[in-house]
User: Fold these one by one.
Assistant:
Number 1:
Amino acid sequence: MAADNARAADSVTFAGGVLDRYRHVCAFVSGRAEADAVLDPFVRDGIDAGDRLLYLVDTMTPASPLRRLRRLGYDPGTLLEERRCEVHTWADTYLRTGGFDQSDMLEQIDGMLGGAPSPRIRLVADMGWAAEREGVSDDLIEFEARANFLHARHRHVVICAYDTSRFDGAFIIDILRTHPMVLIGGILQENPFFVPPAEFLEERAVRGRG
């Protein structure tokens, strides 16, 4: 009973579903309105629960998360000052080496999430930086798979938001297989197409040797 109560207290709600065993989510959305519909309650619940928000956003619109917070009725200045919210741009993270280096980004993610378990971090990553960028698809797919090894070591929540209108079908199928949880059509579910990272990476290595 005590274990059940602790598990319930530790659970996180996203898009009407519960994140418990897995907290690495592929959120397929189409446009800003659909993204807002699922992210606004997630952000609100996090702030009210005392969690910490961490955003990885478009370098051209770094203030967008702050506008969201203000729209939801919060004072972004106070949240930033209290370090309950941090905003990092694509140029500071995914592309800080001038291109995408998956090893560098894995080190960054480990640094962001590998510290203290409390307060819980809710990381929202806008993956639009990879849309229409040549030569990054394979590395990004492997990065998402390898990130599962890191996410298995913490209880923070990671939402990778992919706008389906900006990526081709082949990429979407592969990226789907690297996330244990998926939001698709506005519904959160445990992903039946998820492949454990070691198996997924071995499969890609064999394919590459062929």
Number 2:
Amino acid sequence: MERDWVRLGKAFAKARTAAGLTQEQVAERLHVSRTPIQAIERGRQPNSKPFAKITTTMRAYARLVGWTEDSPDLVLDGGDPEALGSVQPATEPATASGLPTAVDRELRSGKTLDHAVVHLGSEDDDETRLVVVLKGSEDISEEELDRLWQQWRRTRRTLQAIPGESDTPQES
């Protein structure tokens, strides 16, 4: 039996509007961009391919609109979502790693392609840094990977050019 991702997307959109939320508000509360919310509601990934599995963002979206985490599976299989009884708070506690849930979720999903660490601190502060992790779909094509890799190389050079405080000229 093929799963009906479009049906799930329509159910999410209906639940969102019933909760009085916009796509932007859902994205903000789930700590993601609007793109995955649009894709979920459309029933197709941003690259227009059908979803292959229920994502952690979908499960968080389900909780946000007052569904159980199993509700996406129920809807995909032709059933109705199960209500939690009350809409869950949008902010979740930090994970065991100490990272916010949305960050932890993103780091665990997809394929890690590369990373960059940019130190932003001064000579006295070697702890302040920016960490960027490049993630991709598990089933990314070679062509898409090549295109993203070229874009990432340009972005990484820009990030690495950000001066730390010790790189900033001192006024005399």
